[in-house]
Write a structure and sequence with these properties.
The complex is a heterodimer of chains A (225) and B (387). In chain A, helix 4 crosses helix 5 and helix 5 packs parallel to helix 6. Chain A has one domain: 3-Layer(aba) Sandwich (Rossmann fold). Chain A contains seven helices and ten strands. Chain A is of the alpha/beta class and 225 residues long. Helix content of chain A is 32%, strand content 28%. Chain B is α+β, with helices and mostly antiparallel strands and 387 residues long. Chain B has two domains: 180 residues, no CATH class; 172 residues, no CATH class. In chain B, helix 1 crosses helix 11 and helix 11 runs antiparallel to helix 12. The chains are: A alpha/beta (225), B alpha+beta (387). Chains A and B meet through helix 2 of A and helix 1, helix 10 and helix 13 of B.
């Protein structure tokens, strides 16, 4: 068995919404090994995105433990988490979330601003990442000048430019047509197989889930397999 | 490393209407401030170039201005041989006995008539004002009812032109020349022959003041001390520069009122900047969340939005400078200690413009602090979910 890079023990997330007590995740025990491509599946409201957000330390659990890449996330403060996330995690959003006033190259260069790389090195890395997702000829295009599929590929380049060990994708094909979705999933597959990245993808699309090497199902906040 | 400046600059360009409107609001505030500062600066400059540090002005004890001062010819005879007074090439003390009064003349701004300083002085008095020279026409002649007018008088009073006659005292006086005092206050005066003016005013024995020139700065100080200590003379002596400094006091109420208006406008403008930045934070909530996910700290977010607010206000400051620059060609007038009009120009200097931009930066920092702090405090998921 490979080294587990994500471990959750009785992970629980509860919150109050409109005076109702909501249990988003309940006692989730999960292990994801290095190099796996895991699909988190389940219906809307099942807690899969919540789990992904907790793995990315974008939110804090109300109970249980979570260790990612050897760090107990509960023990890190805001600044340490920001630094840890920049170094180790690449996040891909369903709605791409590119900065509209920055070009593709500048968007991809953004996470590298937090490293010690020189400007020329940052440009070189960002260009390489964009070429890897097939957008070497769109470096200076603004997001509005790109198609949805291209925007998502820029977002993928941004997620991998710091060479993180872990790539988290929240419904990455949810806003794309079938052709673009296939391109994005193919790239995720390549990142996993050729570059050894651990990928955790939230989806409720069974077709997308087929690209994963492992699937976990969530229902009403509980892991069912 | 901080979020790139291009992010802020381009966002300002993208929402250009809001940017321009806010910057214009800030610009107007800065322009008001610059107008006040340049007005006071213009007045100070006019008064500072009017006096000579070696000149000592002597008034009656208790008198604050030449207009209310009474000075006798006997006092002048006693005074002019005091130690420390410079001697002219003719071997005579450099001292000028002068009579000052006001006349009323219709001006451009005040058709019903505005007060003008009239000074009666002899040739020595004219020579003592080395900054004053005739720019058109000629000097008045002794024994003639002739006057010369300052260039500000000639430009602001339609009747004060060479060849015309003006009335004061009991006579009509022919204007024979226009004098230029550089930036000095003499530009706002009318000069005539001492004997003619004092006789016309029935003040042959009792004039207004005396101006003497000391040999050097130390002698000037000692001379003033000696004159003020002389119980027999009963005069009030002071450096000519100090006299004009005191005249600047007339601008104080104007300066304070202007500054109060500028501060009130600044509060309004900082709210405008705050409103604009709050809207920017709300509109870019998802971008803020994304930047946090990418690893940018709360501090980076705060700094970035604060910088954007400062950039916006700096633009406003520069606009304010542009709006205020044309004031440089404007001349206005204010009443002086002699209740007469004193003309001076607005002076928008680089230092004043720098102060205006600094004022705008402070305004932008204050206005941007709360929205920037609001952006930095956003929870990542809350920010990402905002539309």
């Amino acid at each position: 068995m490979s080294e587990a890079i994500i471990q959750t023990t009785k992970l629980t997330k509860e919150f109050i919404r409109d005076e109702f007590h909501v249990v988003a995740l309940k006692d989730v025990n999960l292990e994801i090994a290095k190099g796996e491509f895991v699909a988190l599946m389940g219906p809307s409201g099942s807690g899969k995105s919540t789990l992904l957000h907790l793995i990315a330390a974008m939110d804090r659990p109300t109970g249980g433990e979570i260790r990612v890449l050897g760090h107990a996330l509960r023990e890190l403060n805001d600044r340490q988490i920001a630094h840890w996330r920049n170094e180790n995690v690449g996040f891909i959003f369903q709605q791409f979330n590119l900065i509209p006033v920055l070009s593709a190259l500048e968007n991809v260069e953004l996470p590298l601003k937090l490293t010690n790389l020189r400007k020329s090195e940052r440009i070189e890395h960002a260009t390489t990442a964009l070429k890897l997702v097939g957008l070497g000829d769109r470096l200076h295009h603004l997001p509005r000048q790109l198609s949805g599929g291209q925007e998502q590929r820029v977002a993928m380049a941004r997620a991998i430019v710091t060479d993180p060990s872990l790539i988290l994708a929240d419904e990455p094909t949810g806003n794309l047509d079938a052709t673009s979705a296939l391109e994005v999933l193919t790239i995720l597959g390549r990142l996993n197989k050729e570059f050894g990245k651990t990928v955790v993808m939230v989806t409720h699309d069974p077709h997308a889930a087929q690209f994963a090497t492992k699937m976990h199902h969530l229902e009403k906040g509980e892991l069912t397999n | 490393m901080a979020i790139p400046l291009a992010y802020n600059l381009r966002n300002l360009v993208v929402r250009k209407t809001t940017t321009i409107m806010t910057a214009l609001g800030i610009g107007l505030t800065v322009a008001v401030l610059l107008a006040i500062l340049s007005l006071v600066n213009g007045l100070r400059t006019t008064l500072s170039v009017s006096g000579d540090p070696l000149h000592v002005l002597v008034l009656r004890q208790g008198a604050e201005s030449e207009l209310v001062s009474l000075f006798t010819r006997e006092q002048f005879q006693d005074l002019k041989f005091k130690a420390g007074i410079a001697t002219g090439s003719d071997g005579q003390p450099v001292a000028s006995m002068e009579v000052v009064t006001v006349m009323i003349l219709a001006s451009v701004d005040n058709p019903d008539g505005a007060n003008l300083n009239v000074r009666g002085l002899d040739q020595r008095g004219v020579e003592m004002r080395s900054n004053v020279h005739i720019s058109r026409g000629r000097w008045f002649q002794q024994g003639q009812k002739e006057v010369v007018v300052g260039k500000s008088v000639a430009s602001r009073f339609p009747d004060a032109q060479i060849g015309r006659k003006v009335h004061f005292g009991r006579s009509d006086w022919e204007i024979v020349g226009v004098m230029d005092a550089g930036g000095g206050v003499q530009n706002s005066e009318v000069w005539g022959d001492l004997n003619q003016v004092s006789a016309d005013l029935n003040r042959v024995q009792t004039v207004s003041s005396c101006l003497v020139k000391a040999t050097d700065a130390v002698a000037a100080k000692a001379l003033i001390q000696s004159l003020n200590d002389d119980q027999r003379l009963a005069v009030h002596a002071m450096p000519e520069t100090e006299y004009y400094d005191q005249q600047t006091g007339n601008a104080k109420p104007l300066e304070y009122t202007g500054l109060i208006v500028a501060v009130i406008m600044a509060i309004g403008s900082s709210f405008a900047a705050m409103n604009t930045m709050y809207a920017a934070v709300a509109r870019r909530a998802r971008e803020i969340g994304t930047l946090r996910v990418l690893g940018f700290s709360r501090g980076s977010i705060l700094f970035s939005f604060l910088v954007e607010s400062v950039l916006l206000s700096t633009l406003g400051g520069l606009l304010g400078c542009l709006l205020a620059l044309p004031l440089n060609s404007v001349t206005t007038a204010i009443g002086n200690g002699n209740f007469a009009e004193m003309a001076f120009g607005f002076r928008v200097t680089p230092q004043i413009m720098l102060a205006g931009v600094a004022f705008a930066v402070i305004l932008g920092s204050v206005g941007g602090l709360f929205p920037a702090s609001n952006a930095a405090r956003k929870q990542i998921l809350t920010a990402l979910r905002e539309v």
